[in-house]
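hey so i finally got around to running the thing on that chain from the lab meeting. sorry it took forever, my laptop kept dying and i had to restart like 3 times. anyway pasting the input first so we r on the same page abt which one it is
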Amino acid sequence: MPPYGYIPHMKICVFGAGSIGCYVGGRLAATGADVTFIGRQRLVVEARQHGLHLTDWQGADLRVAPADIRFETSPDAVRSADLVLVTVKSAGTEEVARDLTQLLKPGAVVISFQNGIHNAEVIRSHNVGATVITGMVEFNVINRGQGAFHHGTEGGLDVQGHPALEPYEPVFEKAGLKLRQHTDMTGVMWAKLQLNLNNAINALAGIPLKEELSQRAFRRCIAMAQRELLRLLDAARIRPTRLKLPPSWIPTLLEVPDALFERLAGRMLAIDPLARSSMWEDLQAGRATEIDYLNGEVVKLAQSLGRTAPVNGRLVALVLEAEKGGKRDWTGEELLKELRRSVRPE
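ok and heres what got predicted. didnt touch it at all, straight out
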Protein backbone atom coordinates (compact mmCIF):
# COMPACT_ATOMS: atom_id res chain seq x y z
CA MET A 1 0.00 0.00 0.00
CA PRO A 2 1.53 3.40 -0.94
CA PRO A 3 2.42 5.80 1.89
CA TYR A 4 0.13 8.66 2.90
CA GLY A 5 0.37 11.53 0.43
CA TYR A 6 1.94 9.36 -2.28
CA ILE A 7 1.65 10.89 -5.78
CA PRO A 8 2.13 8.42 -8.65
CA HIS A 9 4.27 9.76 -11.53
CA MET A 10 4.98 12.96 -9.61
CA LYS A 11 5.71 15.92 -11.90
CA ILE A 12 7.74 18.96 -10.85
CA CYS A 13 7.96 22.25 -12.76
CA VAL A 14 10.59 24.95 -12.24
CA PHE A 15 8.98 28.24 -13.27
CA GLY A 16 11.70 30.79 -13.96
CA ALA A 17 14.74 28.62 -14.58
CA GLY A 18 17.68 30.96 -14.07
CA SER A 19 20.69 30.12 -11.90
CA ILE A 20 18.74 29.01 -8.80
CA GLY A 21 16.02 27.26 -10.80
CA CYS A 22 18.46 25.37 -13.03
CA TYR A 23 20.55 24.30 -10.05
CA VAL A 24 17.72 23.12 -7.79
CA GLY A 25 15.68 21.62 -10.63
CA GLY A 26 18.81 20.14 -12.16
CA ARG A 27 19.74 18.30 -8.98
CA LEU A 28 16.21 16.95 -8.72
CA ALA A 29 16.30 15.80 -12.35
CA ALA A 30 19.78 14.31 -12.00
CA THR A 31 18.57 12.07 -9.16
CA GLY A 32 15.51 10.75 -10.95
CA ALA A 33 12.72 13.31 -10.53
CA ASP A 34 10.42 14.19 -13.43
CA VAL A 35 11.24 17.89 -13.92
CA THR A 36 10.16 20.42 -16.55
CA PHE A 37 11.92 23.80 -16.73
CA ILE A 38 10.32 27.04 -17.92
CA GLY A 39 12.84 29.73 -18.80
CA ARG A 40 14.17 32.14 -21.38
CA GLN A 41 15.08 31.02 -24.91
CA ARG A 42 18.78 31.65 -24.24
CA LEU A 43 18.84 29.02 -21.49
CA VAL A 44 16.66 26.63 -23.51
CA VAL A 45 19.28 26.64 -26.27
CA GLU A 46 22.12 26.30 -23.75
CA ALA A 47 20.50 23.38 -21.92
CA ARG A 48 19.59 21.55 -25.10
CA GLN A 49 23.14 21.90 -26.37
CA HIS A 50 25.13 21.20 -23.20
CA GLY A 51 22.72 19.63 -20.73
CA LEU A 52 23.11 20.62 -17.08
CA HIS A 53 26.21 20.23 -14.93
CA LEU A 54 25.55 20.77 -11.20
CA THR A 55 28.40 21.10 -8.69
CA ASP A 56 28.82 22.43 -5.17
CA TRP A 57 31.58 23.71 -2.92
CA GLN A 58 31.68 20.39 -1.03
CA GLY A 59 32.43 18.31 -4.12
CA ALA A 60 29.04 17.23 -5.48
CA ASP A 61 29.12 16.66 -9.24
CA LEU A 62 25.91 15.72 -11.13
CA ARG A 63 24.89 15.89 -14.77
CA VAL A 64 21.68 15.85 -16.79
CA ALA A 65 22.18 14.94 -20.45
CA PRO A 66 20.65 17.23 -23.10
CA ALA A 67 18.31 14.46 -24.24
CA ASP A 68 16.93 14.12 -20.70
CA ILE A 69 16.00 17.79 -20.24
CA ARG A 70 12.52 19.22 -20.83
CA PHE A 71 13.08 22.95 -21.12
CA GLU A 72 10.21 25.15 -22.37
CA THR A 73 9.58 28.87 -22.79
CA SER A 74 5.77 28.79 -22.47
CA PRO A 75 3.97 28.81 -19.11
CA ASP A 76 1.64 26.16 -20.54
CA ALA A 77 4.23 23.63 -19.40
CA VAL A 78 2.97 24.10 -15.83
CA ARG A 79 -0.42 22.52 -16.55
CA SER A 80 0.53 18.96 -15.57
CA ALA A 81 2.70 19.87 -12.55
CA ASP A 82 2.03 18.51 -9.07
CA LEU A 83 4.72 20.77 -7.57
CA VAL A 84 5.78 24.16 -8.96
CA LEU A 85 8.99 25.82 -7.81
CA VAL A 86 8.77 29.55 -8.56
CA THR A 87 12.26 30.97 -9.03
CA VAL A 88 11.63 34.07 -11.16
CA LYS A 89 13.03 37.44 -10.14
CA SER A 90 10.70 39.24 -7.75
CA ALA A 91 9.61 41.78 -10.36
CA GLY A 92 8.10 38.90 -12.35
CA THR A 93 6.00 37.45 -9.54
CA GLU A 94 2.73 39.16 -10.51
CA GLU A 95 2.92 37.84 -14.08
CA VAL A 96 3.72 34.31 -12.91
CA ALA A 97 0.83 34.43 -10.43
CA ARG A 98 -1.57 35.35 -13.24
CA ASP A 99 -0.29 32.44 -15.33
CA LEU A 100 -0.66 30.03 -12.41
CA THR A 101 -4.24 31.18 -11.81
CA GLN A 102 -5.16 30.13 -15.34
CA LEU A 103 -3.05 27.00 -15.70
CA LEU A 104 -2.54 25.13 -12.43
CA LYS A 105 -4.39 21.88 -11.93
CA PRO A 106 -6.42 21.36 -8.71
CA GLY A 107 -4.38 20.18 -5.74
CA ALA A 108 -1.03 21.47 -6.99
CA VAL A 109 1.57 22.78 -4.53
CA VAL A 110 3.61 25.95 -5.19
CA ILE A 111 6.82 26.88 -3.38
CA SER A 112 8.18 30.41 -3.85
CA PHE A 113 11.99 30.10 -3.79
CA GLN A 114 12.64 33.81 -4.44
CA ASN A 115 14.55 36.68 -2.89
CA GLY A 116 12.59 39.25 -0.94
CA ILE A 117 9.86 39.04 1.67
CA HIS A 118 6.40 39.08 0.06
CA ASN A 119 6.48 36.90 -3.09
CA ALA A 120 4.43 34.02 -1.67
CA GLU A 121 1.84 36.55 -0.45
CA VAL A 122 1.62 38.02 -3.95
CA ILE A 123 1.00 34.57 -5.46
CA ARG A 124 -1.64 33.75 -2.81
CA SER A 125 -3.42 37.03 -3.46
CA HIS A 126 -4.25 35.83 -6.98
CA ASN A 127 -6.23 32.84 -5.67
CA VAL A 128 -4.22 30.42 -7.80
CA GLY A 129 -6.18 27.44 -6.48
CA ALA A 130 -3.12 25.77 -4.97
CA THR A 131 -1.28 25.43 -1.68
CA VAL A 132 1.31 28.23 -1.80
CA ILE A 133 4.30 27.82 0.50
CA THR A 134 6.94 30.39 1.39
CA GLY A 135 10.46 29.15 0.70
CA MET A 136 14.01 30.45 0.78
CA VAL A 137 17.26 29.43 -0.90
CA GLU A 138 20.02 30.21 1.57
CA PHE A 139 22.94 29.58 -0.77
CA ASN A 140 24.50 31.35 -3.75
CA VAL A 141 24.59 29.80 -7.24
CA ILE A 142 27.13 30.76 -9.92
CA ASN A 143 26.21 30.42 -13.59
CA ARG A 144 29.46 29.28 -15.19
CA GLY A 145 27.99 29.08 -18.69
CA GLN A 146 27.39 26.13 -21.03
CA GLY A 147 24.86 24.61 -18.64
CA ALA A 148 27.17 24.60 -15.60
CA PHE A 149 25.77 25.86 -12.29
CA HIS A 150 27.79 25.88 -9.07
CA HIS A 151 26.48 26.07 -5.49
CA GLY A 152 29.22 28.29 -4.09
CA THR A 153 28.31 28.96 -0.44
CA GLU A 154 27.04 27.17 2.64
CA GLY A 155 23.26 26.85 3.12
CA GLY A 156 20.17 24.86 2.16
CA LEU A 157 16.46 25.13 1.34
CA ASP A 158 14.09 26.52 3.99
CA VAL A 159 10.29 26.31 3.75
CA GLN A 160 7.20 27.04 5.79
CA GLY A 161 6.16 23.77 7.39
CA HIS A 162 3.08 22.25 5.73
CA PRO A 163 1.59 18.71 5.44
CA ALA A 164 1.38 19.13 1.65
CA LEU A 165 5.17 18.86 1.50
CA GLU A 166 5.25 15.28 2.81
CA PRO A 167 5.24 13.48 -0.57
CA TYR A 168 8.04 15.70 -1.88
CA GLU A 169 10.45 15.49 1.05
CA PRO A 170 12.09 12.20 -0.09
CA VAL A 171 12.61 13.61 -3.60
CA PHE A 172 14.52 16.64 -2.29
CA GLU A 173 16.46 14.55 0.22
CA LYS A 174 17.56 12.15 -2.53
CA ALA A 175 18.87 15.17 -4.47
CA GLY A 176 20.90 16.34 -1.46
CA LEU A 177 18.59 19.32 -0.95
CA LYS A 178 16.66 18.52 2.21
CA LEU A 179 13.68 20.79 2.87
CA ARG A 180 14.17 22.40 6.29
CA GLN A 181 10.69 23.19 7.58
CA HIS A 182 9.97 26.09 9.94
CA THR A 183 6.95 27.28 11.88
CA ASP A 184 8.01 30.96 11.58
CA MET A 185 9.11 31.76 8.02
CA THR A 186 8.69 35.49 8.61
CA GLY A 187 11.69 35.46 10.92
CA VAL A 188 13.64 33.25 8.51
CA MET A 189 12.92 35.51 5.53
CA TRP A 190 14.04 38.65 7.35
CA ALA A 191 17.17 36.86 8.57
CA LYS A 192 18.00 35.91 4.97
CA LEU A 193 17.30 39.45 3.83
CA GLN A 194 19.75 40.68 6.48
CA LEU A 195 22.45 38.56 4.84
CA ASN A 196 21.30 39.56 1.35
CA LEU A 197 21.89 43.25 2.09
CA ASN A 198 25.44 42.43 1.01
CA ASN A 199 24.25 41.67 -2.54
CA ALA A 200 24.22 45.37 -3.39
CA ILE A 201 27.62 45.95 -1.83
CA ASN A 202 29.12 43.01 -3.72
CA ALA A 203 27.58 44.23 -6.97
CA LEU A 204 29.04 47.72 -6.45
CA ALA A 205 32.43 46.29 -5.43
CA GLY A 206 32.68 44.17 -8.57
CA ILE A 207 34.86 41.51 -6.92
CA PRO A 208 34.17 37.94 -5.70
CA LEU A 209 32.33 37.58 -2.38
CA LYS A 210 35.26 35.98 -0.58
CA GLU A 211 37.61 38.78 -1.62
CA GLU A 212 35.04 41.41 -0.63
CA LEU A 213 34.39 39.85 2.80
CA SER A 214 38.13 39.72 3.42
CA GLN A 215 38.26 43.55 3.39
CA ARG A 216 37.23 45.32 6.57
CA ALA A 217 35.98 48.48 4.81
CA PHE A 218 33.44 46.49 2.80
CA ARG A 219 32.40 44.56 5.92
CA ARG A 220 31.78 47.86 7.70
CA CYS A 221 29.45 48.84 4.86
CA ILE A 222 27.51 45.59 5.35
CA ALA A 223 27.41 46.15 9.12
CA MET A 224 25.91 49.63 8.63
CA ALA A 225 23.14 48.28 6.40
CA GLN A 226 22.42 45.39 8.75
CA ARG A 227 22.29 47.51 11.92
CA GLU A 228 19.83 49.84 10.24
CA LEU A 229 17.60 46.86 9.41
CA LEU A 230 17.88 45.34 12.89
CA ARG A 231 16.80 48.62 14.54
CA LEU A 232 13.74 48.73 12.29
CA LEU A 233 12.86 45.07 12.91
CA ASP A 234 13.08 45.71 16.65
CA ALA A 235 10.73 48.69 16.30
CA ALA A 236 8.32 46.53 14.24
CA ARG A 237 8.57 43.71 16.82
CA ILE A 238 9.84 41.26 14.21
CA ARG A 239 12.43 38.80 15.44
CA PRO A 240 14.75 37.47 12.72
CA THR A 241 15.64 33.79 13.08
CA ARG A 242 19.16 32.64 13.81
CA LEU A 243 20.62 31.14 10.62
CA LYS A 244 24.40 30.93 10.93
CA LEU A 245 24.75 33.24 13.96
CA PRO A 246 22.38 35.29 16.13
CA PRO A 247 21.42 38.18 13.81
CA SER A 248 22.49 40.85 16.31
CA TRP A 249 26.02 39.41 16.51
CA ILE A 250 26.76 39.58 12.82
CA PRO A 251 27.40 43.37 12.42
CA THR A 252 29.83 43.32 15.36
CA LEU A 253 31.68 40.36 13.91
CA LEU A 254 31.88 42.04 10.51
CA GLU A 255 33.64 45.07 11.97
CA VAL A 256 36.58 43.31 13.65
CA PRO A 257 40.05 43.60 12.06
CA ASP A 258 40.79 41.34 9.09
CA ALA A 259 43.08 38.88 10.87
CA LEU A 260 40.61 38.38 13.72
CA PHE A 261 37.71 38.08 11.28
CA GLU A 262 39.50 35.29 9.41
CA ARG A 263 39.91 33.37 12.68
CA LEU A 264 36.39 33.95 14.01
CA ALA A 265 34.34 33.76 10.81
CA GLY A 266 35.52 30.58 9.14
CA ARG A 267 31.96 29.56 8.22
CA MET A 268 31.23 32.98 6.74
CA LEU A 269 34.29 32.65 4.51
CA ALA A 270 33.45 29.08 3.44
CA ILE A 271 32.74 30.40 -0.05
CA ASP A 272 33.92 29.36 -3.48
CA PRO A 273 36.66 31.87 -4.45
CA LEU A 274 34.77 32.79 -7.63
CA ALA A 275 31.29 33.20 -6.08
CA ARG A 276 29.58 36.56 -6.58
CA SER A 277 26.11 37.89 -5.83
CA SER A 278 23.24 37.46 -8.27
CA MET A 279 22.95 41.26 -8.29
CA TRP A 280 26.47 41.52 -9.71
CA GLU A 281 25.48 39.01 -12.42
CA ASP A 282 22.42 41.13 -13.27
CA LEU A 283 24.51 44.29 -13.59
CA GLN A 284 27.02 42.51 -15.80
CA ALA A 285 24.24 41.21 -18.04
CA GLY A 286 22.50 44.59 -18.28
CA ARG A 287 19.39 43.29 -16.49
CA ALA A 288 17.31 45.09 -13.88
CA THR A 289 18.41 44.00 -10.41
CA GLU A 290 16.30 42.97 -7.40
CA ILE A 291 17.50 45.95 -5.36
CA ASP A 292 13.91 47.12 -4.68
CA TYR A 293 13.12 43.71 -3.14
CA LEU A 294 16.24 43.57 -0.94
CA ASN A 295 17.60 46.87 0.39
CA GLY A 296 14.40 48.46 -0.89
CA GLU A 297 12.40 46.33 1.57
CA VAL A 298 14.32 48.00 4.40
CA VAL A 299 13.34 51.40 3.05
CA LYS A 300 9.68 50.32 2.85
CA LEU A 301 9.76 48.96 6.39
CA ALA A 302 11.19 52.27 7.62
CA GLN A 303 8.46 54.20 5.83
CA SER A 304 5.77 52.00 7.37
CA LEU A 305 7.15 52.93 10.80
CA GLY A 306 7.43 56.65 10.02
CA ARG A 307 11.24 56.37 9.98
CA THR A 308 14.05 56.56 7.44
CA ALA A 309 16.71 54.10 6.26
CA PRO A 310 19.45 56.33 4.83
CA VAL A 311 22.11 53.64 4.43
CA ASN A 312 19.93 51.16 2.57
CA GLY A 313 18.26 53.99 0.71
CA ARG A 314 21.65 55.15 -0.56
CA LEU A 315 22.56 51.60 -1.62
CA VAL A 316 19.31 51.41 -3.59
CA ALA A 317 20.16 54.67 -5.33
CA LEU A 318 23.74 53.60 -6.13
CA VAL A 319 22.63 50.30 -7.66
CA LEU A 320 19.91 51.98 -9.73
CA GLU A 321 22.55 54.45 -10.95
CA ALA A 322 24.87 51.54 -11.81
CA GLU A 323 22.05 49.92 -13.83
CA LYS A 324 22.01 53.09 -15.96
CA GLY A 325 25.79 53.13 -16.48
CA GLY A 326 26.80 54.89 -13.28
CA LYS A 327 29.81 54.18 -11.10
CA ARG A 328 30.81 50.58 -10.38
CA ASP A 329 33.92 48.91 -8.97
CA TRP A 330 33.87 50.92 -5.75
CA THR A 331 36.70 50.41 -3.29
CA GLY A 332 35.70 49.61 0.26
CA GLU A 333 36.95 52.97 1.50
CA GLU A 334 35.00 54.88 -1.18
CA LEU A 335 31.76 53.07 -0.47
CA LEU A 336 32.13 53.35 3.31
CA LYS A 337 32.68 57.11 3.00
CA GLU A 338 29.60 57.39 0.76
CA LEU A 339 27.38 55.49 3.21
CA ARG A 340 28.66 57.46 6.20
CA ARG A 341 27.83 60.64 4.30
CA SER A 342 24.25 59.40 3.86
CA VAL A 343 23.90 59.21 7.65
CA ARG A 344 25.81 62.44 8.40
CA PRO A 345 25.56 64.73 5.35
CA GLU A 346 28.52 67.07 4.99
